[in-house]
Amino acid sequence: MTAGEFPEGPQLDAQINRRRRRGAYLRISFLASLIVAILALLTLLFNIVNSAFGLVALESEVAPAALVEALGLDTTSSALVDLSKDDLVAVLRTNVNNNVGRRLERDQRFYDDRLVFETQTKWDELCGRAVDRPAGCSTGARGRDDVYALVIEQIVQPKVRETWLLFDSIFHRAGIEERAAALYPSADLVFRSWLSVDFVTSPQSPQAEVAGVRTAILGSLWIVGVTILFSFPVGVGAAVYLEEYARDTRLNRLVQTNINNLAGVPSIIYGMLGLAIFVRVLEAFTSGAAFGGVEGSVTANGRTVVSAGLTLGLLILPIIIINAQEAIRAVPQSLRSAGMALGASQWQTIRAHVLPNAIPGILTGAILAVARALGETAPLVVVGASTFITADPTGPFSKFTALPIQIFQWTSRPQDEFRNIAAAAIIVLLVLLLMLNATAIVLRNRYARRV
Amino acid sequence: MISILTTIGIVVVLGREALLFFQTKEVSLGEFFSSTTWEPQIFEFGIWPLVRSTLMVGFIAVLVAVPLGLATAVYLSEYASDRARGLLKPVLEVLAGIPTVVYGYFALTFVTPLLRSLLGVSLVEIFNVASAGIVVGVLIIPLVSSMSEDALHAVPLSLREAAHGLGATKLEVSLRVVLPAALSGITAAIVVSVSRAIGETMVVAIAAGAAPRNWNLGKDGLFSTVLNPFISGETMTGHIVRISGGDLSYNSIDYDSVFAIGLMLFLMTLSLNMLSRRFVARFREVYE
Questions:
Q1: Domain A214-450's class?
Q2: What is the ipTM of this complex?
């Protein structure tokens, strides 16, 4: 067929069929691309769940049953977990040397009315001192669960020898059992969920078996709190100004372009800005020194919750402004005109009509921005998250760590157990994000109905 | 006004520290932009090893994200029924909402072992640029597809109807009429995604390696080292995170050098973003 000449009859049909076939093929390949994206998401989630649960070969220094037997109890009817506080203290008494025992007792007493490792005279002398009084002098006695935890930590000392993924644990169980029996004859093969209530409520620890994310969750919440307090009022204020008051001048156009550009700046650059401004230049304020009341042990110069929160605040400010602007712009002009016509001032119109109408949009945008802040890692690393702290943050001037930082730290460790707890921490983070998004939807619906 | 202050803050802070860096006698601007060795211990500060990894991650990411993102956008905008779109778009939104550190975990614990088992353990190092690039690509698919979809949506229906009227198949309408009409918007999407890939931090910090890969054009093979995506190589963002994550003392040359890299990164992404804005402005003019 030469150019300009049209095919006819069967030739035309063939050509049309060919074109339709090509269309069908490419349509399938378009759909395939989408499926690849969905598969990527599924693989990602599967990969995380796969690591967060699975078999572990647990080997103890001392078998729990042996401890029970040593007490003269029947091992078939009573297990270590079920022992009373008195029995557990007895186990400690016989298996821990006196130095360790005294240290534990000085941290916190076992009984209110008697001492286990210390002598009464020594104890009175220690507690009579003006400085360096042990913490145990002023706190109450340890509970039963606390003593149990001590027995596990000090005597039983379970060590994870090897871990397996969930997938293998289910489908290749026989092979794993064989391997575990050959390599770790004295180890127990147990199914372990790395994500557990203990994981969420325990503080950070150098041992993967007992490490938890409480410190990190609290750190994240503190930071996000500061972020919201700073960026929400400022962001909404800026949006109201830009949409309702600002005239179309050169300067205002510049501001607008500027905000749009800021939204595209890599997050790590904000981290560097935070490091230079909040951590260094404003150290007196962000470390809390300017306000007095610095708790020596919890403060780390300017590398505090405030610095981190403000840095993330700057980061999400452009997002909040842009979303709030869109929400305000969507309010019909007639509402403003009606308000004005009834004699309301511009601010009254905005407060009584524009903002209530725009609030679902503003809130949704803000919550999505906060979700972004919650998952942000790089700026926090740069601003100086503490990589290892076990103390919960107590206020805006505490040192901090955050969930994503913890995930980053654990992922970077070579040991398998840390991969497992990183996966568990990821699940916690994703659940938090999911809750935020759900809140956004609920809030939007509620306000949308009322207005 | 805080936004203006932030911008000024960024420029002043990065500029001042970078200036301090270039003022020290061990460093010269010429060396910074020409040397291919980054070795702070012996005062060798050539930006190219870091830029090389950064650009490679960006390139691989775009290679993954643009075809997939674009095809996804075409499918969602031209083919999918309303119900399918309502079902599939949230998936992309979820993909966009996952924190980047999670993608880093994914790269290290899934993509890297996969590459190693597919291509051989001797060829692919544990930390490698390819794995980081692929995952960054997945991460920016939602960005590419949502921006492209907006561009495709902006093409007036009349153009599609006219093409159908001339007997074109659905594919021909999509590829030869709608796509070219939306080209400037799609270009903008691609440029923004490059900028996003270059600025992406956590994935490369976790998966791409923790040491700058120095190279020498004359001595090292072009494909065995300089352009090899399967060896480790620290990127600009990865370097900033690693250096400032440690106990960094202020006013040290390390501290200042990080800001010089940051300034460079800022300028790169800023110019890309402005370029993209220009493209978007162009396609708005045509159809609105």
A1: mainly alpha
A2: 0.84
A121-130, A435-444, B31-40, B91-100: segment of lowest average pLDDT: B31-40
Give the total number of structural domains in chain B.
1
Please state the domain extents for chain A: 58-192, 214-450
Give percent of chain A above pLDDT 70: 89
Question: Model-level pTM?
Answer: 0.80
Range of the domain at B151: 2-287
Buried b vs exposed e over A52-68: b needs ≥16 C-beta within 10 Å? bbbbbbbbbebebeebb
Placement of tokens 């991969």 in the chain: A419
Q: Which residue of A has its CA nearest to B108?
A: A411
Minimal C-alpha gap between B145 and chain A (Å)? 10
- Residue A405 in tokens: 């930082």
Nearest chain A alpha carbon to B193: A264
CA distance A374 to A355: 26
Looking at the complex, does the CB of residue A200 fall below 8 Å from at least one CB of chain B? Answer: no
pLDDT score, position A450: 54
Burial classification of residue B186, based on how many CB atoms lie within 10 Å of its CB (0-12 exposed, 13-18 middle, 19 or more buried): buried
Q: Which of A33, A262, A426 sits opposite B7 (nearest CB)?
A: A262
**Shortest Cα–Cα distance, A13 to chain B (Å):** 13
Interface-testing mutation among A39, A223, A236, A272, with chain B (most B C-beta atoms within 10 A): A272
The most confident of A120-129, B20-29, B129-138, B244-253, by mean pLDDT: B129-138
Q: Determine, for residues A44 and B98 on separate chains, whether the beta-carbon distance falls below 8 Å.
A: yes
Under the banding of pLDDT at 50, 70 and 90, the label for residue B137 is very high
> Residue B134 sits in a domain of what CATH number?
1.10.3720.10
Model confidence pLDDT, tens digit, residues A59-76:
777 777 777 777 777 766
A328: part of which helix (H) or strand (E)?
A: helix A305-329
